[in-house]
Amino acid sequence: MPTAANNADLVFRQVRLIDGLGGPSAVGDLAVTDDRIVAVGDLTELPAARQIDGTGLALAPGFVDVHTHDDRALLSDPTMGCKVSQGVTTVVTGNCGVSLAPLLAQRLVPPMDLLGDTPAQYFHDFAAYLSALDGAPPAVNALAQVGHSTLRIGVMDTLDRAATPAEIRAMRDALERALTAGAVGLSTGLFYAPAEAAPTDEVAALAAPLAEAGALHTTHMRDEGDAIHRSLEETFAIGRTAKVPVVISHHKCTGSANHGRSTETLGLIDAARQSQPVGLDQYPYIASSTVLDLTRRWDARRIIVTWSKAMPDVAGRDLDDIAAALGCDREEAARRLHPAGAIYFTMDEADVRRIMAYPHTMIGSDGLPHDSHPHPRLWGTFPRVLGHYAREVGLFSLEEAVRRMTSLPAAQFGLTDRGVLRVGAYADLVLFDPDRVIDRATFETPAEPAAGIALVMVNGRAVWQDGAPTGNRPGRAIRLGELGPKGRSVLPC
Ligand SMILES: [Zn+2]
């Protein structure tokens, strides 16, 4: 027995242990006491208060959802059924430039409405947001970032221009306070209206304190279509100038003219990785989802409305059908629905697979928990990678799929004691059926829990069991100070 433990709270017996590092799995036992894994191996002789027969099942580290918009859902829906039902035990919030804290003004502009409708739902102070999570803990662990657009809205009277030096100083002060409180990084959404006028220099200047604090930078890039090459170069330049690891969010090649360009983008990422830490994440679908933006040219085969303030009943319907019913074109229909959100079918399956097969690609759902008819990625992302892309398509082994969701994001974000099955690590665990696990959320019925996820534990306590949330809320707001170095490169064993 590879440990001094002489009894345990719980032992999983005869289970296929997928340790998260990507190497071959093996059948064995794993013991948990309190919130930690205390033994792994042949534990036949180890007595335990409770035992679970894992015959035919796999046990993996809990999945890390590196790209979420769960900032407010952690407080408003703390059992987090959409995530724990997939085996997710840790989420990273504050993505795409949008975070629930620190909002320094009493106003909101899109796409802040992805997180909440009113400023009262936001937090002025980042420390207060983390304290709120401590006081009313969610089911999952959370790492929270600061959004660049949230900062801009707080300190700038108009957003259609570059920030002045004084405004950059004010944003840096707010960012530094948030980092001290425990924010793990700064995200940008240069694609979106509140930040598209921000030049590269503004972001690089703002990102400067990240290096000293040991934080990282994630980005929804300015352009994921025709100018994606330039946006990648901009992202790398910000990382080099600020000397921080960068993560390219939800990497994709959007628009039919750009289908196939993932060969080029992955080549650029590979080249940049020779001299600086660059990471990336992806959700496993050919459609994106965000606010319904009236100012953009849409190059989408199909658009599904996910919510509408003006016409709530149309959530879930195709924009073209709504337009036909209203007797107008897509653009006019969108105007009448506004403010609203939508799903856009703009990607090519071959790009999705090529990006997923790239060994440094992490998995992030980008789920939008407040949408009335959400993109199925909110409920389906992780089981879809395991069941569809690993088992059915054979894009990689199950062990490798799990690595993308566990040790790889743990190394990227500096989680030193999660994302791996080993003695001493936190008992964030997923017990699942490798032959049955699959997403069931579809574009038509998006809020369906996945099949094949038997039991999910966070910090040693069950959060999902027998097809339902347990109601336990053992999650923790993990502070920057608890994390190790970011952006480490980890390859399959
Ligand atoms: Zn985004």
How does this structure look, described?
This protein has 493 residues and is an alpha/beta fold. The protein has 3 domains: 8-60 and 418-472, Urease, subunit C, domain 1, CATH 2.30.40.10; 63-291 and 341-413, TIM Barrel (Alpha-Beta Barrel); 292-340, Dna Ligase, domain 1 (2-Layer Sandwich), CATH 3.30.1490. The protein is 28% helix and 21% strand. It contains 14 helices and 21 strands. Strand 11 (216-220), helix 7 (228-242) and strand 12 (246-248) form a beta-alpha-beta unit. Helix 9 crosses helix 10 (330-337). The relative contact order is 0.17. The mean pLDDT is 95. Zinc ion binds next to loops. Zinc ion (ZN) is lined by residues 96, 189, 220, 249-250.
Helix amount: 25-40%
Number of domains: 3
Give the name of the CATH superfamily of the largest domain: Metal-dependent hydrolases
Task: Give average pLDDT, whole number.
Answer: 95
Give the CA-based shape.
globular
**Proportion of β residues?**
15-25%
What is the CATH architecture term of the largest domain? Answer: Alpha-Beta Barrel
Radius of gyration: 22 Å
Descriptive terms for the model:
21 strands; 9-stranded mixed β-sheet; single chain; binds zinc ion; TIM Barrel; alpha/beta; Urease, subunit C, domain 1; 3 domains; 6-stranded parallel β-sheet; Dna Ligase, domain 1; 493 residues
Give a topology summary:
Elements: E1 8-17, E2 26-33, E3 36-41, E4 48-53, E5 58-61, E6 63-65, H1 73-76, H2 81-84, E7 88-93, H3 126-135, E8 141-144, E9 146-147, H4 148-155, H5 165-181, E10 185-189, H6 200-213, E11 216-220, H7 228-242, E12 246-248, H8 262-273, E13 278-282, E14 287-291, E15 303-308, H9 319-326, H10 330-337, E16 340-345, H11 349-357, E17 361-363, H12 377-392, H13 398-405, H14 407-413, E18 429-432, E19 453-458, E20 461-465, E21 468-469
Parallel strand pairs: 1-4, 1-5, 6-7, 7-8, 9-10, 10-11, 11-12, 12-13, 13-17
Antiparallel strand pairs: 1-2, 2-3, 5-18, 14-16, 15-16, 18-19, 19-20, 20-21
Bound molecules: zinc ion (ZN).
